[in-house]
Write a structure and sequence with these properties.
Mean pLDDT: 89
Shape: elongated
Order of helices and strands: HHHHHHHHHH
Distance between the termini: 21 Å
Helix content: over 70%
Strand content: under 5%
Number of domains: 1
Radius of gyration: 21 Å
Largest sheet: none
């Protein structure tokens, strides 16, 4: 019996080994960036905004924004990296997943820009004096609210939809083991439940409910990343789609 790799070679289908490694690395970087983005500022960014404290932590603010830009780019890169492989099995799902994760990236960047805007407002208010600090608090709280909704709710909806699409495609195509893609489907549904719950309760971040419902997708993405880096895509699945397209 021919091996999957041999079948893929004979069918003329590329193995996408480099793509699998790149996507695996992007999964790790994206997960790390989304978690580490809370570290530089810690609990400094809460309402009402302490503008004086924010102004003196300018390096931490900029570092947080840079980490969030990495989050946005790597998240979109996952779906873009998967696109040439997934589109061979389901072009609509491949395109939809890219659109979803690009939308996620846009809203993450909006939140990062809001943070940088807060830094500018805080520094200008400190220079102007205590009276300006008091008047700037309302504007700052509004910007912070936009940022929290962007990161804690709006960005997560397209992420969930986009991820659901490529997990459906991975499951139906058998590009990775079905236990792994099936885990992703269940976990992303739990993630969406958590996101919707957060929207209604307006409790964003690492609350007890959110953390419990988000752990499965976090673990699954790391397992998928390791699988892609170590094993790559199933060559028999690639060979079968090549044969069906002849």
């Amino acid at each position: 019996m021919r091996t999957g790799r041999r079948q893929a070679e004979e069918s003329g289908m590329p193995s996408y080994r480099g793509t699998a490694i790149a996507v695996g690395v992007l999964f790790i970087l994206c997960s790390a960036a989304s978690i580490l983005s809370i570290v530089p500022l810690g609990g400094a960014l809460v309402a009402p905004v302490d503008l004086a404290r924010l102004a003196v932590n300018d390096n931490r603010v900029v570092l947080t924004a840079l980490i969030e830009f990495v989050w946005a780019v790597t998240g979109a890169g996952i779906a873009i990296g998967l696109y040439p492989v997934v589109k061979r099995f389901n072009p609509a799902l491949a395109l939809g997943s890219v659109a979803g994760r690009l939308a996620e990236g846009v809203f993450v960047v909006v939140g990062a820009l809001g943070l940088l805007a807060l830094l500018t407002v805080s520094q200008e208010a400190v220079v102007a004096g205590s009276a300006s600090l008091a008047s700037a608090v309302t504007v700052s709280n509004l910007v912070l609210a936009v940022r929290e909704w962007a990161h804690g709710f709006v960005a997560l909806i397209p992420f969930g939809v986009g991820a659901f699409m490529y997990y459906v495609a991975l499951y139906s195509s058998r590009l990775v083991p079905r236990w792994l893609s099936g885990w992703g489907l269940v976990a992303i549904v739990m993630f969406m439940v958590s996101t919707i719950y957060a929207g209604f309760t307006q409790e964003f971040g690492f609350t007890t409910v959110n953390t419990a419902l988000n752990i499965p997708i976090g673990l699954q993405e790391m397992a998928l990343a390791i699988w892609l880096i170590a094993k790559g895509f199933d060559q028999r699945a690639l060979a079968s789609v090549a044969e069906s397209q002849v």
